[in-house]
Amino acid sequence: MNSGHVTKAVLLAAGKGTRMRELTNELPKPMIPVRGKPILLHIVEGLRAAGVTHIQIVVGWRAEVVTEFFGDGAKFGVAVEYVTQVVQDGTGRVVELAKEFAGADPFILSYGDILIDPSNYARLAALGDAEALVSVKHNPGEVSKGGAVFVNERFELTDLREKPQPGEPTSPWYNAGVYSFRPSIFEFTAKLEKSPRGEYELTDAVRALAQSGHRVPALELTGDWADVRDPEVLAQLNA
Predict the structure, then answer these.
(1) In 30-174, where does DSSP find H-type helix?
(2) Cα separation of 166 and 171, whole Å?
(3) Crossing angle (nearest 10°) for helices 39-49 and 63-70
(4) Which segments of 112-170 are extended strands (E)?
(5) pLDDT at residue 163 above 50?
(6) Nearest to 105 by CA among 192, 186, 218
(7) DSSP string computed for 6-28
(8) What residue spans of 63-158 are helical by DSSP H?
(9) If DSSP codes are grouped into helix, strand and coil, which group holds residue 194?
């Protein structure tokens, strides 16, 4: 099956979110309420509206808060299943937990603490003939906190660098943390080696995928975008 439309999604919700301090003592960060509902519910509703029917949530810290809230997904109009990330060793290995869930199908992957304008999910679901899509925001000032995405004249990814340091090559395109993948990504996560931070980085697998000759367009997100990474961002969103 080489369908251009994506109906599966994987949401990463295993981390504690230590920068949230006491807010995550009882809750995993993706379950923190923004404008009256958990971040994860905003994501699930956006995906459902885009035609996604099956969602796998990767749980870890306070997993029961997530599983009790979403259950089998029926009351939210989607089928939800869970997989547990036992070892927190980076975003590259965690994607491998989705291998069975994905099977032969493409899937959207989102961090559980990223809020985007819901209209973008339909654009991510329209994978077409691309091997993967990487969402980006034009945000030169943020690149040092996350990933810089390098593109060619067709706006396809040529390189991806985590937190470029002063003096290193950079790009105004910031990795926005939501992707679409085909199962080919698993070939590249399987080959990952630990980064200088001692973690397996998903971005290394995405770079390898693009540099192996696959077409990986960047997708500029429209509307608001927020990485709910600390209490200050949360306070702004809830103001």
Answers:
(1) 39-49, 63-70, 91-96, 99-102, 119-125
(2) 12
(3) 40
(4) 114-116, 132-138, 147-151, 157-162
(5) yes
(6) 186
(7) --EEEEEE----GGGGGGGSSS-
(8) 63-70, 91-96, 99-102, 119-125
(9) coil
Report whether 174 contacts 138 (CB < 8 A): yes
Q: Are 162 and 203 in contact (CB under 8 A)?
A: yes
What DSSP character marks residue 58? E
User: What single-letter DSSP state applies at residue 134?
Assistant: E
Distance (Å, rounded) from C-alpha 95 to C-alpha 86? 13
- Please give the helix or strand (H or E) that residue 116 lies within, else none: strand 114-116
DSSP code of residue 29: G
Contact (Cβ atoms closer than 8 angstroms) between residue 12 and residue 82: no
Residue 166 pLDDT exceeds 60:
yes
Q: Where are the domains of the chain?
A: 8-238
Task: Read off the pLDDT band of 25 (50, 70, 90).
Answer: confident
* pLDDT at residue 4 tops 70: no
The answer to whether 30 and 112 have CB atoms below 8 angstroms apart is yes
The mean per-residue pLDDT over the stretch 67-72 comes to 98
Q: Which of 17, 14, 187 is nearest to 94 (CA)?
A: 14
Q: Kindly state the tokens that stand for 200.
A: 């397996």
Beta bridge mates, 219: 135
**CATH T-level fold of 8-238:** Spore Coat Polysaccharide Biosynthesis Protein SpsA; Chain A (3.90.550)
**Cβ proximity of 136 and 219 under 8 Å:** yes
